[in-house]
Specification:
Oligomer: single chain
Shape: globular
CATH class of the largest domain: Alpha Beta
Number of strands: 11
Bound molecules: guanosine-5'-triphosphate, magnesium ion
Number of domains: 2
Largest sheet: 9 strands, mixed
Structural class: alpha/beta
Strand content: 15-25%
Order of helices and strands: HHHHHHEHEHHEHEHHEEEHEEEE
Radius of gyration: 20 Å
Distance between the termini: 66 Å
Length: about 325
């Protein structure tokens, strides 16, 4: 039997070899995989794949720390400014590195516009509210706009070409492709200094690929695997992961009353650390409601979509 790769030497030889021939050479790449994909790639069962992933995740997680150390780490954590002071204050500085932030809202509420603004701002140096890094944009709806990002860059006196060069864009065509892309991002994250990952939108393909009541359980399992993989991606590379989500009608079982809520259900709803819901207000004003945050109470702020981008004021 062959030699073992140091990082994977604790695995039995047959599993080690199956991982290597499928292209999984590091604990990070395994931790970010989803069980279904790892099983397909290696020929191992999905249950074995789950166990391998759990082991990889525990090998990359940090040892217990004191709350004092954690406070220090938290204070140093990067955030991406939104270019609106109100939105930044709602988000305790903007979407945080190492975490998932969800932006929900009905059509034309500004989810994509806010993502475009973050694509520009993540590239700024840290003392200007950026993460000093590049961006990976996963476009599931075909609505990415380089032109619009260029306008936002010009409004900030930045060099449009270099801003656009620092954004990798992938158009994903189905949910399977979408889960696979996370592995791709993991492969280039360190070399390319990727600090912001956008998924616009997280839900669209999952909702259209798994239609019918009998496929809901399968869909939920896949979306939760995707969520774990994104959580691990954010954690191991200290990346801010920002996902957009659609609103769907949610019927209260007791009263029968229907109200709108972000798609993908209850178990997904606990995965993003921070969640905001956007809604329209007259003109280009938008209201953001913080619905989930480890650091701020539920509250609302107003912002504007202007020609220059996301702002506190309608006239820039
Ligand atoms: P869906 O993807 O359809 O669910 O919507 P969304 O929430 O992603 O909406 P999006 O971010 O695309 O926001 C659309 C809003 O931004 C519309 O009201 C547009 O008028 C506005 N918008 C887009 N481009 C510009 C622009 O160049 N200037 C201004 N002022 N507004 C713009
Ligand atoms: Mg959009």
């Amino acid at each position: 039997m062959g030699e073992k790769i140091a990082e994977l030497e604790s695995y039995p030889q047959n599993i080690h070899d199956a991982l290597i021939s499928a292209g999984y050479r590091t604990s990070k790449s395994i931790a970010i995989a989803i069980p279904h994909d790892l099983a397909v790639d290696t020929g191992l069962s999905e249950q074995t794949a789950e166990e391998i992933i759990a082991r990889a995740v525990s090998s990359i997680s940090s040892p217990p720390m004191s709350a004092k150390d954690l406070l220090y780490i938290e204070q140093k954590k990067g955030k991406v400014t939104t270019s609106s002071n109100s939105l930044d204050s709602l988000l305790a500085g903007g979407p945080w590195a190492g975490e998932i932030t969800e932006i929900s809202g009905e059509f034309a509420t500004g989810k994509s516009q806010l993502c475009f603004q973050l694509c520009v701002n993540a590239q700024l140096p840290k003392d200007r509210g950026g993460l000093d890094g590049k961006v990976f944009f996963v476009d599931s709806e075909g609505t990415f706009s380089a032109t619009r990002i260029g306008e936002m860059a010009i409004a900030m006196d930045l060099d449009v070409e270099s801003v656009l060069e620092n954004i990798f864009v992938t158009r994903v065509l189905d949910s399977h492709h979408q889960t696979r892309v996370v592995q791709k991002i993991n492969e280039i994250a360190e070399e390319e200094n990727i600090k912001l990952v956008i998924i616009d939108s997280i839900a669209a393909h999952f909702r259209s690929d798994y239609i019918g009541k009998d496929r809901i359980a399968e869909r939920q399992q896949r979306i939760m695997q995707h969520a774990s993989s994104l959580t691990n991606l954010a954690y191991v590379h200290d990346i801010a992961v920002v996902v957009t989500n659609q609103m769907v009608a949610k019927v209260d079982e007791l009263s029968g009353a229907s109200q709108k809520a972000p798609a993908l259900g209850e178990s997904w709803s606990h995965r993003p650390q921070t969640r905001i819901v956007l809604r329209k207000s007259p003109g280009m004003a938008r209201i953001a409601r913080l619905t989930d945050s480890p650091r701020r109470p539920e509250s609302e702020e107003v912002f504007y979509i202007t020609d220059g981008g996301i702002r506190d004021n309608p006239r820039n």
